[in-house]
Design a protein that fits this description.
Helix content: 40-55%
Subunit structure: Interacts with FtsZ.
Function: Cell division factor that enhances FtsZ-ring assembly. Directly interacts with FtsZ and promotes bundling of FtsZ protofilaments, with a reduction in FtsZ GTPase activity.
Structural class: alpha+beta
CATH architecture of the largest domain: Orthogonal Bundle
Radius of gyration: 22 Å
Low-confidence stretches: none
Number of strands: 8
Largest sheet: 4 strands, antiparallel
Strand content: 15-25%
Pfam family, one: ZapD
Oligomer: single chain
CATH class of the largest domain: Mainly Alpha
Mean pLDDT: 91
CATH superfamily of the largest domain: YacF-like
Number of helices: 9
Shape: globular
CATH topology of the largest domain: YacF-like
Keywords: Cell cycle, Cell division, Cytoplasm, Septation
Protein name: Cell division protein ZapD
Number of domains: 2
Length: 252
């Protein structure tokens, strides 16, 4: 079932962007082709750019500590299975420990690698990583896939504590809300929001056979969802039929 996450603030938006990049890296790193591994390296550079602009380490540690406290306060609640709670607290502790033990700035060892930074600098130029621009990189891409996988894994290693922290926080966020079944009349849905604790993200899920996708406009006051399809030229066109979907409002 396709799902679409829509963040309500920049903090959650940053976590979702990093999750997307990490997912692509961890999938493509298992590939064999040199061009797939080139894409992996470009995604690693994009991760570095995002964490360069925002200091995430302390923010993530504070959120993990807060979630651990919330989970511990739920102990003894008869509606919550103790084993599930213990496993979640253990996951939080296992994510926080290596992140807390990471010295200095996240990804600094990669920034200190002059060879990687020379590739990163050229990669923002269209066609800037040709063999005549970076012969050493062209040579590296021609090495065995096992060697490239090993190098990429080494470069990813200092970033993995960040990914583990993001993964558990987004897991808690996605599981925090109650899911409701809704219908978008003539492809449009609107809902006013209220309450003392505003949502931080919404999730829309539609069935596999629904030939459309949601475009969301939302803030802490209201949600507007418009379902569109693509014509033969890949231009969005409004759906004018009723669309059944599920909606989850999430909050840490």
């Amino acid at each position: 079932m396709p799902s679409y996450d829509y963040p309500f603030n920049e903090r959650i938006r940053t976590l979702l962007r990093l999750e997307d990049l990490f997912t692509k890296v961890l999938h493509n790193i298992e590939g064999e082709q040199e061009f797939i591994h080139h894409c992996v390296l470009i995604s690693i550079f994009q991760i570095l750019d995002i964490i360069e602009r925002a200091e995430l380490k302390m923010d993530l540690l504070q959120e993990l500590d807060r979630q651990k406290m919330v989970m511990n306060n739920l102990r003894g609640n008869p509606s919550i299975e103790e084993k599930v709670l213990n496993d979640l607290v253990a996951d939080i502790e296992n994510a926080a420990r290596p992140l807390r033990n990471t010295p200095g700035k996240l990804g600094q060892s990669l920034r200190d690698n002059e060879w990687l930074m020379s590739i990163k600098q050229r990669s923002v130029i269209p066609g800037g990583v040709c063999e005549f621009d970076l012969p050493s990189y062209h040579y590296w891409l021609g090495l065995s896939s096992e060697r490239r996988k090993h190098d990429l894994s080494v470069w990813m290693s200092p970033l993995m504590p960040l990914y583990d922290a993001i993964r558990i926080i987004l897991h808690i966020l996605r599981g925090s809300g109650a899911t409701s079944n809704m219908t978008a009349t003539n492809g449009a849905y609107q809902q006013m929001l209220g309450g003392a604790k505003p949502a931080q993200m919404l999730r829309v899920e539609i069935s596999d056979d629904t030939p459309c996708f949601p475009e969301v406009s939302a803030n802490k006051y209201a949600i507007n969802i418009r379902f569109n399809s693509l014509d033969n030229a890949q231009r969005p066109r409004p759906c004018d039929s009723n669309i059944d979907f599920s909606l989850t409002l999430c909050n840490l």
